[in-house]
Amino acid sequence: MMEAMRRALPGLLRRAMPSLVLLALPALAMAGAPSVSGAWARATPPGVSVGAAYLTITGGSANDRLLGANTDRASMVQLHTVEESNGVAAMRQIDGVPVPAGKRVVLAPGGTHIMLMGLSGPLVAGETFPLQLRFENAGEQVIQVTVRAAGEPDPAAPAAR
Question: Residue 48's closest CA among 73, 81, 83, 69?
């Protein structure tokens, strides 16, 4: 019986291999994709229709670019950055965020962030909501954003580490 199984195994593997490869392809594609951690947003008071999400992206095996995001919690989501000119900080929309292979990119208050406009309701401390990120090469990735109370320190800030 063992001899028969030993002889049959190569044929079984040969027939099963295409299916195994197809099953593994999504996992292999994601293995080189950017990873996202520490996603959070500040709680907003009732009546405020804008908020922002912050997170850290670690580049995958190849350079990529964050192109945008989407969530049911806001009617419009844009990538923004804050620039200072003559001592005045100004926020502006940007068309993408470069994500170099293997490098960390931090989206944080006072810098690059994901702007949530037309909120469907206040962001309440302790809740989470899904945010769909769209990368140029890695495609779409859904993450969970945790809402933190106003006044809580930025978890990515050096003092918080």
Answer: 73
Three-state SS for 10? helix
Tokens 């990873």 identify what position? 35
Architecture in CATH of 35-151: Sandwich (2.60)
The encoded tokens of residue 35 equal: 């990873």
Query: What does each of the 161 residues of the chain score in pLDDT, given as a tens digit?
Result: 666 656 665 665 556 555 544 444 444 444 589 999 999 999 999 999 999 999 999 999 999 999 999 999 999 999 999 988 888 989 999 999 999 999 999 999 999 999 999 999 999 999 999 999 999 999 999 999 999 998 887 776 655 44
DSSP letter (8 states) at residue 159: G
DSSP of 105-146: EEE-TTSSEEEEEEESS---TT-EEEEEEEETTTEEEEEEEE
pTM score of the predicted model = 0.77
Side chain identity, residue 141? Q
Domain boundaries of the chain, sorted by first residue: 1-31, 35-151
What does the block give as tokens for 134?
């769209």
